[in-house]
Amino acid sequence: MFVGTIWSLLPPIIAIALALITKEVYSSLFIGIVVGGLIYSGFSFSGTMEHVFVDGMIAQLSDSWNVGILIFLVVLGSMVMLMNRAGGSAAFGRWAVDHVKTKTGAQFATILLGVLIFIDDYFNCLTVGSVMRPVTDKHKISREKLAYLIDATAAPVCIIAPISSWAAAVTGFVDGANGLSLFVKAIPYNFYAFLTFAMMITLTLTKYDFGPMRNAEQSIKSSSKKAKHELHPSITGAEDQPTPPTSLRGRVIHLVLPIVCLIICCVIGMIYTGGFFEGESFVDAFSNSDASVGLAYGSVVALIITIIFFLLTRVLSFSDCMNAIPEGFKSMVPAVLVLTFAWTLKSMTDSLGAATYVAGIVDNIAHHDGLMSFLPALVFVVGTFLAFATGTSWGTFGILIPIVVNVFGGNIDNELMIISISACMAGAVCGDHCSPISDTTIMASAGAQCEHIDHVSTQLPYAMTAAALSFVVYIITGFVRNWLICLPLGIVLTVATIYGIKLFSQKKSA
């Protein structure tokens, strides 16, 4: 009775509403999961228990893709703990104090690092967070702002990088057309990604923040008041872990080399899964790669190399290295728990036919000729809503992209199809940014060691502003169909909007 109807969206809506109201993630997600189980089973107790735990949680934790991501996550946590104990992070912090002189410089360094790590969004979130936390803390940048900078460079840079796990995912959802060629053609129309970058840079240059982020930034400036991340535990729970003395022999190389090694190993791991060493070209290997397995391969190899390097340079003993591994694992347990709940909630919405319900709406819209020029804007809105409700951008790709391709018959020379595909990708990233149950949002909180709901509430006004501007530009693009006109127009609108908000707030406070 409830399957394939608007009721299928109730579990994620309840979870998101409770999370924003109570500011408590675990119980909110679990209540959403239980509601999904009750609806699916027709409010049967035994049916609900079986669906939640067997079909939901256990199935998600036994899924090979999810297990690979969890392995990558905990190995990365162990590597971060090793780098901290070796003194690499502290040494980089000292170096950054000497070379990054201003708060603006620290924010630009964070953005630049986020752009450079375009291979995978999970990798981006955790690596940028662990490297830049000491620098942003020194310049009194709030953890909420750091989490925003991480989140706003992770998915947006991956969705416009042809060599990334996201490009591989998108091309995998395109049947009857050259997926990679379609992805490359769609890049200039991914307005949400580009306008998010424009917004970040404008906010950084103008030294201006608005909404809850402004309050967070003003709070951190007060030297007499403890930073919020010191008063409340972060998503990683790292504050609860013991803090043994770090090695005094640590140098910047003890941070830089493991990260460079991790990047190289992860790239090799991904192209290995795509058949590069069996004769496939680099681009084809990346398109066909299994990001989950590749990241697991790469991170484990990088961990072994890091331990050997630390032993050879005598910054840590063998026993210190082995002790750091489970501590790093423990620091990621809360993030793993949130991810598990988010994946289980997604499985509840999938079983209730939320995807079918939303797909039907899009399909009906697409077959009205009078609405075709508005299709990119409509696809963007639907993609945003679907990603927000389910917490997954890749799932949104899988639902909407095949529908759009079928509507246009897989003709990659049709400019409106290219724009609509890009609108789908942009909407998925936008909804992913806004949703507290999104795995990327969770990873950004983990990377910044920021309280998760604080990250969501401070980022939401920024993401919604970029979304509103993107929607306007997609309406224009549906008629103009030329990115050389529409993309610069969108960037100008973004800069003008930020300056407008700034002038309005100044007049209001005067």
TrEMBL record:
Predominant place of localization: membrane
Naturally occurring in which organism (per UniProt): Butyrivibrio hungatei DSM 14810
Superkingdom as given in the UniProt entry: Bacteria
Residue intervals of the Na+/H+ antiporter NhaC-like C-terminal domain: 157-479
GO cellular component: plasma membrane
Annotated protein name in UniProt: Na+/H+ antiporter NhaC
Bilayer topology term: Multi-pass membrane protein
Keywords: Cell membrane, Membrane, Transmembrane, Transmembrane helix
PANTHER family registered for this protein in UniProt: NA+/H+ ANTIPORTER-RELATED (PTHR43478), NA+_H+ ANTIPORTER NHAC-LIKE C-TERMINAL DOMAIN-CONTAINING PROTEIN (PTHR43478:SF1)
Keyword Cell membrane applies: yes
Pfam families with a match to the protein in the record: Na_H_antiporter (PF03553)
InterPro entries, A to Z: Na/H_Antiport_NhaC-like_C
